[in-house]
Amino acid sequence: MGSGRAGRSGTRKVAVVGVALSDCGRVDDATPYALHAQAARRALADAGLGREVVDGFASAGTGTLAPVEVAEYLGLRPTWVDSTSVGGSTWEVMAAHAADAIAAGHANAVLLAYGSTARADIRAGRRTGNLSFGSRGPLQFEVPYGHTLIAKYAMAARRHMLEHGTTIEQLAEVAVQARANASLNPEAMFRDPITVDDVLSGPVIADPFTKLHCCLRSDGGAAVLLAAEEYVRDCRTAPVWIHGTGEHVSHAAMSEWPDFTVSPAAVSGRLAFERAGVGPEEMDFAEIYDAFTYMTLVTLEDLGFCGKGEGGAFVEKGRLRVGGGELPVNTDGGGLSGQHPGMRGLFLLVEAVRQLRGEGAGRQVLVRGGELPRLAVASGTGGWFCSSGTVVLGRG
């Protein structure tokens, strides 16, 4: 790892050397494969490296044999491959696997790529807005009762409210501050300011969530290129080092989840910080998976930014905003306002790297009297708090 820390296994330090998004938001004239390719080309161009250096590839969510089909489409013949699929946390988990492989010498440069036309497919009638992940396996015991994906998050949020006194207004603050950050991001899908009253007065989706408590649905793709330290000198960008990672799976059936108020980030975050040799108090900002407002709140608790049950109070008073907030969170607007084309975890890594490199433009996080941030955490969540991957990144 970078900065002389010894949190990674293996002998080589690993850096993120290229990041990019494809066209995002409303993209009616592209396939998921095309968005993969667009993001991948841009990430390689960002790094200043050619396709020939890529000997590892990771992707999920597209095709029958992902990532084989996507690699073929991109003209890649990787000798290291990963198709881990654990929902939104897929990309943080893949980044951990890729970093370990590079550190151990099993690969030199690994490309992570994602693309989805989730919004356009519904608009064109190619798919419906599915309410369930299916009815096989352990899910067969929940689906007959109409327990939708959104309802699972809503049930967990209601439990937190019951046990810890968290209010619906506090949850709404997460959406308000995400929109404030999105207003600074020209790539965000929704940028008009909203208020707590706007959130509370919207149509109910699953009690206690109204529409603005829930992520938007967009099209888009992203790509991240990780490489061994010896490639850094050939890159056009400053390296952002992988300092520590952690991953954890919790449950599939809600009946097997020991505590609805504790997410798997409580484990993945602890592991990532321990392996990085740093603590949450040293993070300059955080990128957190936010399919729903409750995800942000409970992940902040479980990563150690505040105590269990204190998330509601923590998110008040603008703490999550870029420009004045104590801990800017989801600096691009997140899935609530920026973009959310499905498994959004790769977008967290792209934004974290951009911020650490000082490429946040009008939403750039500055610390200690105007300096660029040095450390950040990206934490993805999958399923209905079924899985989590956490990555600590830093400059220098």
Could you characterize the architecture of this molecule?
- Pfam families: Thiolase_C_1.
- Helix 6 (168-182) crosses helix 9.
- The chain has 12 helices and 11 strands.
- The strands form 2 sheets. It has a 9-stranded mixed beta sheet, sandwiched between helices. A two-stranded antiparallel ribbon has the order 5-6.
- It is α/β, with parallel strands linked by helices and 396 residues long.
Domain unit count: 1
Largest sheet: 9 strands, mixed
Tell me the name of the CATH homologous superfamily: Thiolase/Chalcone synthase
Structural class: alpha/beta
Total helical segments: 12
Protein name: Acetyl-CoA acetyltransferase
InterPro entries: Thiolase, Thiolase-like, Thiolase_C_2
GO molecular function, one term: acyltransferase activity, transferring groups other than amino-acyl groups
Pfam family, one: Thiolase_C_1
Describe this protein with a few key phrases.
single chain, 396 residues, alpha/beta, Peroxisomal Thiolase, Chain A, domain 1, nine-stranded mixed beta sheet, two-stranded antiparallel ribbon, 12 helices, 31% helix, 17% strand, globular, disordered N terminus, Thiolase_C_2, Thiolase-like, acyltransferase activity, transferring groups other than amino-acyl groups
